[in-house]
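Note to self: the last two entries modelled the partners one at a time, which told us nothing about the interface. This time every component goes in together.
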Amino acid sequence: MAEGIAEEAGIALTPEHWKVISFCREDAAREGQPPRLRRISEALGRRHPGPVPGCFRKGPGKLAARISGLPKPQGCV
Amino acid sequence: MKHLVILGARRERWWPTGWCRLGREWDVTVVDPETHLYQPSLLFLPFGAHDEDRMLQLRARTLARGVAWRRKAVQTQRPRGPRVLLESRRTAAMRPAGDRHRQPRIPVRRRRRGLLGAEWHRSIHDFYTLEGAQALRSALATFTRGRLVVNVVEMPIKVPGRAARVPVPGRCVPEGTPRATTSSWCRMTPLDGAFTKPTCNRVLSCPDRRRKGITIETEFNTGEVDADGRVLRSCDDREVPYDLLVTIPSHSGRRGRGRVGTRQRDGVRADASVQPAGKADDHVFVLGDATDLRSSKAGSVAHFQAEERPVASCGPPRAQHGRRIRRPRELLHRDEASARPADRLQLRRRAAAGQVPGPCLGPMDLLRKSRVNHWSKLAFRWLYWNALLPGRPLPVSTRLSMRGQGTAGRRAGRRVTHPEGGPPCCTNTGDTKWT
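The predicted structure of the combined assembly is written out below.
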């Protein structure tokens, strides 16, 4: 399923992508909501919030959630 | 006598002091710096509409009678003991017996990634701080030609509406002046619209914006700022040149103040969806900026948390574990405590057009510009200094009423909708679906 969505978005999934997807799924199952970009980047060892190199550059948070099969991350009010 | 310590007394954290003062049951100690800043004016300061005299007041003038005040900034908090360690390494005088309710403040910290440098406060500005707003005011005074870019690095930020309104006062420069005729305004956002909610995007995307030359660049995830070349680059290599950049950097809690015995998430205190930690948390409550509750951190929203937020001590709703839900107010006034549904915060509500506080009569309109709205915004400052900060009770219910909302309504023979005929209202429609 993830590969199909990624193909629609024009992305060929690499192991780096799968790391992000796995984290997103695990975190969403634990927390009940898709992780935001900052949480993803911190969990994957990035010092500052930002996209993981080579992954989901067009939408580091939202695209990762979409391909992970999760709802759209919520902003605040 | 029980003792309440409030660390950082912004609006939402001042609210409980009113209860205590009325109840005569509590000693209250506030730990906060010398002056208090009225943050909503930070939007007006760069455009000369407000000045510092109206924004700052000495803390002593805002204290209710009977409230003790300590000026030392908080450095470390130790919730597991009856002490709060202050910057001077002295401990606040706290009585070792009885209930204690401490409301740690983990202030917003800005991560100025790639921004600090020679151009900081010259061609790159923020305005969420007094010094940033003052620097932006100086820059705008001499900015006569060029492209001004307002950039939101990451959501959520504190008071997203304030960032959305930055270009609005800028539109008010008199037509015919060089700034009005030669500047173009551009707003960059990682969201898929100018506002965080789809309803607002539909209703508030007014033709005004196009007429004034304000453009919106959506889905812009800021990668880096080239300060020398004055170019903003996104993660997907889009480039936006600027002459003056107003940026809203990422917000996060201060890590050094996270040692409060509960889990932290994203640098801010976790909300009610996270597992509880230590037992000491029963007496530690978090309100406002320090929470990661999915609501605005604006004071106008956050001060209701003291009334409505279940288990502000960062644990999950205790009802999930067979225990009753507790709130700050519930602990302060045990006799009137009652377990109320956790959804009192009404986070599932969405922006809606209409009138408040009553349908058809208003007088204030939602999702629409009006003169009354503007006056009420200006009048709020008086209310802030004279009623909210001293903790005086307000004749306003904390229950969110939907009367007048979600119905397009008519007022003075005019539909309260977008002039281009956009959807008038949208309630309880989640924006979590992929489109």
